[in-house]
Every structure is written in structure tokens, then in C-alpha cells.
Specification:
6-stranded mixed sheet, 245 residues, alpha+beta
Length: 245
């Protein structure tokens, strides 16, 4: 960070802290966020929650879905599994619950989002192609809906990237990191190996990276093994993602 080199952060969203949920949960969404200050660019790559992987430290549970890596071995196992699967380095991780996402969006005053489809979820309505300023609650349900999307989890991944991109454009600033209300509000919903000094370095030296944000995703195909449904990401797709990052 001091040398302003590109860094990759594994961002994991957990399905907890809303609607009375308090259990540990699985990493319901996973994105690799790569910040390149020299090119003033950010790349956000979604990982399918059902992607079939071998867990380096839990061979007895392999093959497994990538979302289970967090359950078995926490952030370390999730990082190890993705590093091995895509042959890329992950420098840091951030885990944020859905409840934390809601708080973070409210603290920055909401986000501007254009929905890729028309749907209703938990009493909130969204219209395709319409730009809308969403508060934390509306943005949370926007990212959480899965089963009514014609593209299933891939559609949800797209909506998650849209919200994260909107949040990053507002949140990556030293004013946000130094804002006690912002940091305090999400402290119970956030886990990371970034220190406060690291976050300040990111806010001061990497804030230009949100000028050019590129979104992508690792695409898999359906695969059944021993009655378990996986998404199988091919070797060529693994290579494409590795080269992209």
C-alpha cells in the first residue's frame, strides 16, 4: 500500500444481520476487487457461490461449493481456495453482512442505481432502466433477491456489483474513513484484516481508482456430482479471469 501497488481484496457478503438472522452464515456473495492506482482503475469480478472447488485445508469435504470455504475455515480458507483456483494473489479480505451493507449505504446518504430488471422484493418495487436513489433498505433487498431473477444467481451477482460500484464511488474517500459515525455504524457488521492505517492508505492513495470501474464475472455451467448441484468454471474461464485480474 505504501508503494501504491495494485492490490486485490476478496469482498464477501454474508447472509446475516437482517430479519432476525444471527448465525455465522455462508459467504453468500464473493467478489474480487482489484484496485490499480497507476491506471486509476478498479476491476470487480463476481465468483459464483456454487462454484466447484477443492478446499486446500479440507480435502475431506472436497469438492465443495466455494461458499462453504468460509463456513469451514473462515476468510483464510476462502482466500486459499480462490488463490489456488484462479492462480492469483489475494492481499486482503473484507466481510460485510447484509445488515452492514444497509448501514453503510445509509451512512453515505444512499446510492444511485439503475435496475437491470423490473421486480418487487419485500415490499420494495424496482423498474428496469429507471435510475433511482436507494436508501440502505431498498438497496439491501435489491441485492438480496435471487429466485425471481431469470438469470438466477448470475442476475443477483450483477445487482450486487451495481450496488457495490455505486457505494465505492461514494465511500472511497478519506472523509468517509475518518468519519467516526460511518466506521462505528458498520464495525459490528464488518470483518477485515485491513488495519485502520491500511484503510487510510487506501482512502488517500487509491481514491482515483473509482474513476474507471470494470465489472465481470466467472461464468460456470451446471454440474451435478453425488446429488449436489455445482457451477463448474472451466479451465479456459479460470485462465480468462486470472488474466483479467
Amino acid at each position: 500500500l505504501k508503494e501504491k501497488k495494485p492490490v486485490s481484496i476478496l469482498f464477501m457478503g454474508t447472509d446475516t444481520d437482517f430479519g432476525g438472522r444471527t448465525y455465522k452464515g455462508r459467504s453468500d456473495s464473493m467478489m474480487i476487487i482489484t484496485l490499480n492506482p497507476a491506471k486509476q482503475s478498479t476491476t470487480i469480478v463476481s465468483i459464483p457461490r456454487d462454484m466447484k472447488v477443492n478446499l486446500p485445508d479440507f480435502p475431506q469435504y472436497s469438492p465443495s461449493k466455494i461458499t462453504a470455504a468460509y463456513t469451514y475455515g473462515g476468510p483464510k480458507e476462502a482466500i486459499n481456495s480462490i488463490e489456488q483456483h484462479f492462480n492469483i494473489p489475494i492481499d486482503y479480505y473484507v466481510t460485510l453482512s447484509l445488515g452492514g451493507l444497509k448501514k453503510a449505504i445509509d451512512q453515505v446518504g444512499g446510492v444511485d442505481v439503475i435496475s437491470p430488471l423490473t421486480f418487487t422484493s419485500n415490499g420494495e418495487h424496482y423498474t428496469k432502466g429507471q435510475k433511482e436513489h436507494m436508501d440502505g433498505t431498498k438497496a439491501m433487498w435489491f441485492t438480496q433477491m435471487r429466485y425471481d431473477d431469470p438469470n438466477n444467481d448470475y442476475g443477483r451477482q450483477e445487482r450486487q456489483r451495481i450496488v457495490l460500484e455505486a457505494l465505492m464511488k461514494k465511500a472511497i474517500s478519506y472523509k468517509t474513513v475518518l468519519n467516526n459515525d460511518f466506521m462505528s455504524s458498520i464495525s459490528h457488521n464488518l470483518k477485515t484484516d485491513l488495519t485502520m492505517f491500511d484503510m487510510l492508505q487506501l482512502a488517500l492513495n487509491y481514491r482515483g481508482t473509482n474513476k474507471n470501474i470494470k465489472s465481470d464475472y466467472a461464468h460456470g455451467t451446471g454440474d451435478m456430482e453425488k446429488g449436489v448441484s455445482f457451477q463448474d468454471v472451466s479451465g479456459s474461464e479460470q485462465t480468462r479471469i486470472s488474466n483479467l485480474i
